[in-house]
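Friendly challenge for the regulars: who can give me the structure tokens for this chain first? No prize, just bragging rights.
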Amino acid sequence: MIGQSLRARYELVELLSEGAIFRSFRALDHVLNRDVCIRTFQSPFDKEAPFVEAVKAVVIKQNEAKHPGIERLIEVDDDENGPFLISEASPGALLTERIRKFAPFSVPVAVSTAVSIADALATLHRAGRVHGDLGSHHVMVTPEGGCRLIMGGVWEAYSSSQTAGVVVLPNMAPYLAPEISQGGQPSAASDVYALGVILFQLLSGRLPFIADQPMATILKHSQEEPPGVRSLNPSVPKALEECIKKALSKDPEQRYPDAESFLSDLRMVEDALRFGKSVPWPTGEKPEPREPVVPQLTGIKEESAKGKFFQRRDRDEEEFDEDDVPGDVPMWLRTATIFFVALVVFMIGGWMIFNLNRPRNVTVPNVRGLTLAQAEANLKKLNLKGRIMRREINDQAAGTVVDTDPSPGFAVYEGQSVGLVISQGSRFVETPDVRGLTPDKAREMLDSVGLSLGDPVEKTRDRSAEPGTVVSQVPEPRVRLERGSIVRVKVAGEEDERPTSDAENRRRYLYTIKIELTDIEDPVELRVDMTDSRRTRTIHRETHDPGDEITIEEEGYGPRADFRIFYDGELKKQVTKTAESGAYWEDTGGRNP
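First reply, four minutes later:
Bragging rights claimed.
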């Protein structure tokens, strides 16, 4: 379906995932000129009218909760291909994939991820809504490192279908709270349980309950106690382990009642990790004050209510030693007291000297969205220095600050450096108009926006154009493309030059490309984009292991095509292929002999 347009408006650009109920695509909305996510209904659910109507109802209710960490469902539409769900685009990778590749995570990263999820979940709960099918498969990790919940509330539609609940059970079972499997309804407490499972996964790299079948997993959730996460990852603080235990309590009454309360404890743990403090459990409680320890001396007893003490020798004579006079202090105690007083004075003096000479604290200002020069100027006013940490592709304008380290609001000393993350601009750019330019000038203009000129350059006859200048381009001007994409052009040739005929460019040729993944050590998502004489499209997107050999056969228009090969979204190589002679089809679909 790649390249197909739904409702003559949504062009399907890339297949993102394929599930039991929906097939997800990245699509371009040509009316509003923006990226969206299109989910087409798989068979037989596309024919189940009650289920489709139930999804429509979910879309209306779910949009009551607005938060950048919650995917916005726009509407359910349909055309001759069937119904489809439209939602805002959620760039990034599924948390499931990140866990598979990188877990277990460090404790600060795991807690930060859980805080991001809980923050979005709390907004749902305050609006009286629940996610209902929370799991790593429904959390997107954005390029900025935040999290976004997707497909929230769609569980409500499952009951309108005879089979939807069955096909989604394998994904739901690892995160399903015990009361749900016993006939209860999803609630804020069951969302908290699912988040507890996710946090357990992030810290340990595994699920708390593992079984071969979904029903066996559900039984374990109901009957067995989860292992302590510290037994799998000793670096986890005790307080954080207790937070997870509380979230995974089998009794909903013993859990956090909603994401807001869970978030409060997670933030307390996060702050403690950041500043190297210990966290008491239960969180928020202050340690009980200890009774002062009074040194007891053998043979000393109370003489009167006024607090006078004396020591009587164990002998018959009624006489007192000079050191035993009431109110006097023994020499050894007097010496110890003088020593400790001197030590305290020395420590106080040292503390005062240190703090008088220490740089004063200042608060990191919010410079996100400013240009690099503006950010550095604002930091300089507070006697801070700006330091570029890295540059990353971002939807913000190129050259603007998208994040800082430390974050805005944190206290630092004067003279410290603040790390700046600078945007390289969106990964999508608008194709410039290179018609009328020479190939060298066209290449220069395309390079300036992150695009490439396809080689070899085709020649065509055009008496109205200056020889050696571009007369047409694919894609056309002002089309949004991903950075690194190829633009093919035709250049007006001299009269004696034989151009590539239009008939050849209208023919569909069969191309074969072979890829051997011998240059990787870990599994990668392999994506292959193909540019022919008409358009650019994704022809392959799958995860492969090291050493895999992949052969791709694909039809394309014209006798030459460019192939771009990506590993985990990064451009690895670019290949130009020439079709074999005679291996083509006409537009009518008939194979030429």
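The longest strand covers residues 10-18. DSSP finds 15 helices and 29 strands in the chain. Your move, everyone else.
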